[in-house]
Design brief:
With about 240 residues, this protein is mainly α. It has 9 helices and 4 strands, in the order ααββαααααββαα. Belongs to the glycosyl hydrolase 88 family.
Length: about 240
């Protein structure tokens, strides 16, 4: 799974840490079943990554089933309270794409591991993505526009010809690209007055949108250069020499 929806992936599909290093996980390792609820047998146990039983826990499906059954127009869950209930926010917020993005991940999981859930996660993912469409023309989330595009990128994996998803990716990518300054060499994180140009490392998580748009749409190859340019500048200024 890609870096986008990092928080969603961890929240939805919890995996135990893999102790073996990349060097020890050789090509001799048997492919494991992503639907397995326990560690698979291997002639070299020390090379075997553990698969958490929670990866297909019914609790995951039931919680998202309950929270996504009743669609809320332009409203999305953001945080949970001490009691465990959701705190909801309007659609113009940086985490709004995470919830429908998670529903797409649940659809993917249900396809790989059939029989674990009867919910039509794809239908729900598409429905909950509708509230993000109005943000394609303008929004206030700054560089996190890339997060808003996550559900539409996921939809194009299911149906590459989905016109709504293609329009969404293209529009959000344009908004993000417009935040790029060639003098600075970065996309701006949040709006600020001259001479400030705010750039945080989190911008890196939004570059995928530019890379994907560059691949999807002829004539937008410049988005690749923008993303690569930002990454190079960030590597120079956001990372210590060590």
């Amino acid at each position: 799974m890609h870096l986008l929806q990092l928080a969603l992936f961890v929240f939805t599909f919890v995996l135990t840490p893999i102790a073996a290093s990349l060097e020890t996980r050789s090509s001799q390792q048997e492919p494991h079943d992503p639907c397995a609820s326990r560690s698979f047998h291997h002639p070299h146990p020390q090379h075997t990554p553990a698969v958490s039983a929670r990866i297909n826990s019914p609790l995951i499906y039931s919680k998202y089933d309950e929270s996504s059954t009743n669609y809320r127009i332009n409203s999305y869950p953001h945080l949970t309270s001490a009691s465990g209930s959701w705190s909801w926010v309007g659609n113009d917020w940086w985490t709004s794409g995470f919830f429908p993005g998670t529903l797409y991940l649940l659809h993917e999981r249900s396809q790989k591991c059939p029989g674990r859930t009867s919910v039509n996660w794809l239908a729900r993912a598409r429905k909950w993505s509708e509230g993000l469409v109005p943000l394609e023309s303008s929004n206030t989330v700054g560089h996190d526009t890339g997060f808003l595009a996550y559900p539409f990128l996921s939809e194009l994996k299911v149906n590459p010809n989905n016109a709504t998803a293609k329009a969404g990716v293209k529009a959000f990518a344009a908004l993000l690209a417009n935040r790029f300054n060639s003098t600075v060499g970065c996309t701006r994180s949040w709006d600020s007055s001259y001479p400030d140009f705010l750039v945080i490392i989190d911008n890196m998580m939004n570059l995928e949108l530019l890379y994907e748009a560059a691949k999807l749409f002829p004539g937008l190859e410049k988005y690749y250069d923008i993303a690569a340019g930002h990454a190079s500048t960030a590597a120079m200024h956001h990372l210590r020499p060590d």
